[in-house]
Amino acid sequence: METARLVWSRLPHSEDGELDGVGILSSTSNKNSVESLDYEVIENYAYREEQAQRGKLYYGYNVAVKWFFALLIGIGTGLAAVFINISVENFAGWKFELTFNIIQKSYLAGCLVYILINLALVFSSVYIITHFAPAAAGSGIPEIKGYLNGIDVPGILLFRTLVGKIFGSIGSVGGGLALGKEGPLVHTGACIASLLGQGGSTKYHLSSKWLQAFKSDRDRRDLVTCGCAAGVAAAFRAPVGGVLFALEEVTSWWRSQLMWRVFFTSAIVAVVVRAAMGWCKSGNCGHFGAGGFIIWDISGGQEDYSFEELLPMAVIGIIGGLLGALFNQLTIYVTRWRRNYLHKKGNKVKIYEACLISIITSIISFGLPLLRKCTPCPDSAPGSEIECPRAPGNDGNYVNFYCSKDNEYNDLATIFFNTQDDAIRNLFSAKTIHEFSAQSLLTFLVMFYTLAVVTFGSAVPAGQFVPGIMIGSTYGRLVGIFTVNHYKKLNIEEGTYALLGAASFLGGSMRMTVSLCVIMVEITNNLKLLPLIMLVLLISKAVGDAFNEGLYEEQARLRNIPLLESRPKYEMRTMTAREACGNQKVLSLPRVVKVADVVSILRSNKHNGFPVIDHTRSGEPLVIGLMLRSHLLVLLQSKIDFQHSPLPCDPRGGSRAIRPNFSEFAKPVSSKGLSIYDIHLSSDDLEMYIDLAPFLNPSPYVVPEDMSLTKVYNLFRQLGLRHIFVVPRASRVIGVITRKDLLIEEDEDSSTMELQSTSVRAQRHERRLSIGNPDAERPLLNGLLLQDQNHTN
After folding, report:
1. Which residue of 293, 301, 359, 642 is 20 to 30 Å from 37, comparing CA positions?
2. Distance of CA 217 to CAs 227, 277, 609, Å?
3. How confident is residue 209, by pLDDT bands cut at 50, 70 and 90?
4. What is the pLDDT of residue 26?
5. Distance between the two ends of the chain, CA-based, in angstroms?
């Protein structure tokens, strides 16, 4: 019971408060408070009046604008990805080129230059985050997942967050830290979509009124979903994987119309990225060439596999699940220690921490290859494009680093003293059997795994896709070495096992299946490995689920984002809606309320929704709807609907020609909206009244008090609700709606339906006239029973 109440307390209901350490909403402080979003359509009088004024032409225009915004999101996200990749590749290219030129004379001087360049890049990143855009730290995927789950996390979609994410990612990834730019690209796409939806940034005077077409949280949610898919499509050049990632990982609500727009956005991103890469091939982008965008073509690798290889592949899945679950648990401990001790000391400590991690990473990546003995180059096959050796800083295999002979290479430098994209390409490469020794792979695995755990959670933009691929491909190739030595078959490629290892670690850490499988196929261009990728993903996810939750779910909990998971807790099956409410006192408003009372109520609590009560002619209370706090604040600020009389007014009457527009009730996404302390009212205003009937939600979702909490949970999450009324059992039923009542075809004869409804009304009228005749009651019961039988389907 206590566990179920703990979970229920994390639901985004009417209270607004700060989240404490265990993720429960607390009203002790208003600082950094987390609110829920209004995804439900408020069908009040103002909404219906606005809809009645719009014709079919407007709805066609609205659909066209949504597709146009999907086009803009795809173009914007694609250009942002191109800019980030070009910048990262050029910084890395200049860094390695300068370092290589210096180590020709002195390795010590080259090491110092390498450390200082990485330190400068990382310092620029952490300085931007700590002083300009704190919400841009981390990957951003847990925050976006919370937003699409119905949580309004402050600051995650601002213009400065977008700028901080782009430039911070360039500094952190270009600085050689053990992190990637794929998660930040998802956040970047979401920010671009949100800013386009609200018409830009008003704070920085970068707004346009003609772009301000979508002001509701519901429409913005669809745009942000398109942005998330565009980010994945731009990061991996995987448009289908981007659509599936948005569907599987980040969204809680989906529909077919949104699927088409998300797919269109991802396709636009793919076109933009392809065009940019074609333009860069002519040498217009500096060091950015064939690499940079993450695609590792292994179509020329292993073409077939035997039944005997399934055992080591299953072992790779088990290892991925164990290491992925361990990674999640270690990041929890490190992040919790940072939050409770380190980051409480201010921004300076965050900067010192990131710079210290940069120095350690640079020393390890430069120093460990110096301790490794070089290996003679293998005899190249005729027609082979693989060159041995290669100079440091050039993409390719067999890097000559600190070798005494010209025909030798350093296998540890091939993966350590390189960009992560090129290192993964080397690990995935085919026709390179015995390029890496087991000792070098094991050394790299331990060191990079430790660096990834320590780096993740620091005050820089950090993605976990590429580090996960690096870790998985390392132990996958290690298993491949033992498999080749054991079976001694010529058709076994170590690069194939590296790919499976990368998929297994991502599956064991992030717990994605379908989207990750498609992404891995798209970035490797090898459809023949699809069954094997599916196998290791299923095994690694099953093993990881036995220990903890996925990486994004754990990080969302650490960031105090109260996510509603896809499945309710087991304990909720034995609880009812009334038990979940506890002994809380319901604070309601009358239909016609005094302005002074409204101000007093809003100042005395932080509820975001209030039931509105009216009375029937017999004096019985009647719930007529739900009034949102934000709507009350708009009414208080506008003062248009203040009235002197405490009597209800007719909303359809012509006495009030001036009313707030329905769009005026929308909260800006870039701010926390109005506050009761921002509104100034005179003493005369406080003595006036407001009739809430035209502005409340007349049809909120209602559940009986004895409904199981599991059903309430599913209803709340799947519909994206913010409030649910818990009421006593209803005393009567006025009708039953079945499937056939919701299937209205355009070519159906409407006159027959009208005739049936008229006959029913006529029968009811005759029954009312036959009161007192006992025989006349019998057809009523039979008619209801027959009607119920007709509605059983």
Report:
1. 642
2. 15, 36, 16
3. low
4. 35
5. 37
pTM equals 0.84
Element (H, E) at 275: helix 256-279
Handedness of CA 228, 171, 236, 511 (dihedral sign): negative
* Dist CA 66 CA 142 (whole Å): 26
* Residue 59 CA: distances (Å) to CA of 54, 66, 72, 723: 8, 11, 20, 28
Provide the pLDDT confidence category of residue 667 given band limits of 50, 70 and 90. Answer: low
Cα 217 to chain centroid distance, Å, stands at 15
**Residue 787, C-beta contacts closer than 8 angstroms, at least 6 positions apart:** 736
Q: Got the DSSP string for 555-596? A: HHHHTT-----SS--GGGGG-BHHHHHTTPPP--EESEEEHH
Average model confidence (pLDDT) for the chain? 81
CA distances from 283 to 35, 276, 277, 279, 641 (A): 49, 12, 10, 8, 64
The predicted model gives 588-592 an average pLDDT of 92
Does residue 189 surpass a pLDDT of 80? Answer: yes
Q: How many CA atoms lie within 13 A of 789 on its CB side?
A: 6
Q: How far apart are CA 41 and CA 46, in angstroms?
A: 12
Domains and CATH numbers, the chain: 81-87+122-281 (1.10.3080.10), 307-559 (1.10.3080.10), 571-649+664-742 (3.10.580.10)
Task: Transcribe 392-438 into DSSP letters.
Answer: TTSSSSSB--S-SSTTEE-HHHHHHSS-HHHHHHHHH-SS-TTSS-H
Quick one: pLDDT band at residue 660, thresholds 50, 70, 90? low
Other C-beta atoms closer than 10 Å to the C-beta of 373 total 14
> Is the pLDDT at 436 greater than 60, yes or no?
yes
Residues, the chain? 793
Residue 778 one-letter amino acid:
R
Rama region for 494: left / alpha / beta (φ>0; ψ in -120 to 50; rest):
alpha
pLDDT for the residue numbered 689: 93
Binning pLDDT at 50, 70 and 90, where does residue 63 land?
confident
Q: Determine phi and psi for 138, rounding to 5 degrees.
A: 80, -170
The pLDDT of residue 544 is above 90: yes
